[in-house]
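Researcher: I'm preparing a figure for a lab meeting and need a structural model of a single chain. I don't have an experimental structure, so a prediction will have to do for now. The sequence is pasted below. Please return the structure as tokens so I can convert it later.
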Amino acid sequence: MGRYILKRLFLIIPTLFFVLLINFAITQIAPGGPVEQAIQQAENFQGVDGTTAGLSTSVNRQEYRGAQGLSEEMVDKIKAQYGFDRPAHERFFLMLKSYLTFDFGNSFFKDKAVTQLLLEKMPVTISLGLWSTLLIYLISIPLGIKKAKKHGLLFDKSTSLLLAVGYAIPAFVFAILLIVFFAGGSYFQWFPLQGFVSEQFQSFSLWGKIIDYFWHMTLPLLAMVLGGFASLTYLTKYSFMEEMERQYVLAARAKGFGQNYVLYKHVFRNAILVILAGLPEVIVGVFFVGNLLIEIIFNLDGIGLLGFEAIQQRDYPVIFGTLLFLTLFGLVLRLICDVIYSVIDPRIDFESRGAK
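Model: Understood. Here is the structure written out token by token.
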């Protein structure tokens, strides 16, 4: 197992390289980059002395030529400010060199280091992702097991309608509906419309902070759970049903063991492996796909909202820093899941199977 872990750790490096390379190439051909935005902003700027808004480069009124556009000197200054005065391949390898020293650069528009921005936004995203993932698993696994036991009966058929609705409707639609009904939309105003905590949060007592935190988190978490529990419930149900039809289960029942004993002593250990196999995708999806829209809708200042704003502004250092973090998170999570696999079932040997 040790050799397998080392092999997977070494494979992370070329994976990150090609992910960054592909996205870097895409950003080079995408219109509306930071240089174009800065030039347009400067061309639209008129009648103000001193510095051009949004630029750190000083622009006096003699350099600005109104309808004639900017001088070549001014355009060169803007390119140099954003690092676009070098060829694309040189910029890419300079970026990789900086990443090797954990220097992700500074945001073009927020005047902060990318690392600082990620650290500031991470608590919101991790908090929302951990709670929603925990709730989804606490609901989906027991529900899926019970549906497997009651397959074809009234409980299974009645809950299938609930699952069909949850599977068909994405989390952000649930978020909008919850806002309309419970956050001052058209009906009730029981929960806050946006934000992670109240403005007076620091003045609250410890118990008051806990209540305020969960008061703000109720609707975002409910939206994510409603939009994410159906697929895991189906996976759990059919994994257990498949195991319950295997020969060893029939043999255990023939020996007189009860259903619950067979289910939790034998079936659970094998069926849970399939659920664990999808754990990385579930967590990454909940953290960085579901979180993205939920953070935008509820104005939660996390990594999802940061990445969305960076894409809008073409803030390339933030985009690549966020991308690197998400990719690395997913790869490490997959490796951890493989290790858990081998702990739960020692018969699984990734090295002997030539796993990559």
